[in-house]
Design goal:
The complex is a heterodimer of chains A (about 110) and B (about 110). Chain A has about 110 residues and is mainly beta. Chain A has no helices and 11 strands. Chain A has strands spanning about 5, 10-15, 20-25, 30-35, 45-50, 55, 65-70, 75-80, 85-95, 105, 110. In chain A, the strands form 2 sheets. In chain A, strands 2, 4, 5, 6, 9, 10 and 11 form a 7-stranded mixed β-sheet that branches. With about 110 residues, chain B is mainly β. Chain B has no helices and 11 strands. Chain B starts with a strand and ends with a strand. Classes of the chains: A mainly beta (about 110), B mainly beta (about 110). At the A-B interface, strand 5 of A face strand 4, strand 5, strand 9 and strand 10 of B.
Chain lengths: ~110, ~110
Amino acid sequence: DTAVSQTPKYLVTQMGNDKSIKCEQNLGHDTMYWYKQDSKKFLKIMFSYNNKELIINETVPNRFSPKSPDKAHLNLHINSLELGDSAVYFCASSPRLQGVEQYFGPGTRLTVT
Amino acid sequence: GENVEQHPSTLSVQEGDSAVIKCTYSDSASNYFPWYKQELGKRPQLIIDIRSNVGEKKDQRIAVTLNKTAKHFSLHITETQPEDSAVYFCAANNFNKFYFGSGTKLNVKP
């Protein structure tokens, strides 16, 4: 069984569109994250949620809005997509905020044309 | 905020040789330091981690050392194999702050 899953795996869309990426974890973890990995493979945290509460909101354009309907889900909605948003987006989860392994999802490759 | 620097960005070794990847961090409050391996097209996966109350940890061919005073930690892979080829990321964690290094692409030549 997949511990952390994301949909879709690939997403190709045009500039200006709005899109969502969904993430689900079946590990019973309290904390979930979104990361952006750019073409140079740099992995940068965007958001983290603990028990559905936003904990970290890094310097990310407000076109990006996370939504956590429950502890097992953390979705990412992106408005007015730009070329620079093209990247692989990883969802991750961990049992708690600090000092433990993060389990990553398979990633969503977003291409904005 | 935390700043994690990782070197080298690429590393090429012959099969059987050792590989060392180094990271430095800036926030002295960071207390958990994991290392992740990311194979091409795959997700990052934890390979080893170390906490600030420990100076060294080993797991078979992989070891991590931590120097809290100097704020640096290193990943050591011995007897490298072609399947070790991947991108390796270090990270530093302080409570809710979690920052990754820029990655090291390791190529193990058979």
